[in-house]
Amino acid sequence: MRTAPTTKATLYERLRDGIDGFVAATPARFAIVIFAGLILVFTLLFSLPIATTSGERAPLVDALFTAVSVICVTGLSTVDMATYWSPFGHAIIFIGVEIGGVGVLTLASILGLVISRKLGLRQKLLAAGDANPLRIRKGPIAEGQAVRLGETGSLLLTVAISALVIELVVALLLFPRMLIEGVPALDAAWQSIYISAMAFTNTGFLPTSEGLTPYADDVWFLSAIMLGVIAGAIGFPVIYVLSKNLRRPRKWSLHVKLTILTFGLLLVLGALAYFILEFDNPKTFGQLDPGQRILQSFFLSSMARSGGFSTIDIGQLDGSSLLVTDMLMFIGGGSASTAGGIKVTTLAILFLAAFAEARGHDDMEAYDRRIPSDVLRLGVSVVLWGATTVAASSILILLLTDDAPLDHVLFDVISAFATCGLSTGFTGSAPESAQYVLAFTMFFGRIGTVTLAAALAASQHPRMFRRPEERPIVG
């Protein structure tokens, strides 16, 4: 009679040890499994009749697409998010974007820290995988990172506190403006909290059908949203370092310096491009005064990085502006942030490699630091995997649709991959088969091309030999 509990305990211990071994050996695969599991759970929640305003079950494609968009903090939708989902549905959306924005592995580590009051090595490695993709690969990793492994506990606290504080600050900035607009106090409180969460997580969903129309030319309101979007897109490692050494730039790591410099340049150059390209477009900026043109240019430039909010009809942008937006979306925001894309540091590394090659230098250097070659290989892999994903998805969608403009299809595919959320209107009107493709594109974009590649290659073993060297002709 005493053998049954022993058997159960043994099975439980085996299951626990198996899960622990899987997590420790292949954190990249673990991340993919957790993301897929969350999407399944939220798909079931969105399929409940209580989740829709009509009281009917949402079609599978709408429930799945919304779940992926929420967990991957993308912002694309196949339905009118404001009117289709009930208050219960919007509560699920709010919870989902908070989970997806912070990062599944980071959130799991935070919960472990809260429960156990300490952070074990496995939890540090999981959280570090969210903060630095290099650490999801097997083998030793040099600790010359923005956040060292020993500082992971402090980083997790920074993630939790910064998310709470930034969203609260943005909500407090939006609340009085909504009251001035005539929104009832309770509605203004909920909407300001909702929008601030969507801004910080770079999702872009809005709780009302009129969207940003009442505040389309409001400097205060749009600036508050930009503040939340940029704070979320800059990256938690950058926030962590700045919180410790804001007034001591000499102590900033190379990652922080490259992120801030590249992020700022892209923001300004993007705004300048929109200002010039849309100057005479009567459907966008053509009828605005100079001050509004500057405001709208910077707003669109920041939203194109992953924010997803828009005060204009994206489909009315000039073709050249659509191309600029494609490039900004593909680049995205900072590493370990709520933004998507290949990340700004990846772009910086590629340019540094090109500069080093042009000067005839063997090493990449920046701010008196040498950057190892494995970082360049990782950056090239990210770009190639990203470009391949975008190309494959675009070709497949073009085969599944009739008379769909290439520029609109490419725009929405890049928006899905980069988890941006801006749309030309194609996503909502696309056939279900194309919407499923976009959903998978969002998933691959959010889990990260590096994570996906590492998960697929986790079973590979290092080679014990090297073949003779020979140089092919390049260029």
From TrEMBL:
InterPro entries: Cat_transpt
Record key words, sorted: Cell membrane, Ion transport, Membrane, Transmembrane, Transmembrane helix, Transport
Keyword presence, Cell membrane: yes
Regions crossing the membrane: 30-51, 63-85, 91-115, 155-175, 219-242, 254-277, 327-355, 375-400, 436-458
Domain of life: Bacteria
Bilayer topology term: Multi-pass membrane protein
Pfam families xrefs: TrkH
Cell compartments where the protein resides: Cell membrane
Protein name: Potassium transporter TrkG
Species: Antiquaquibacter soli
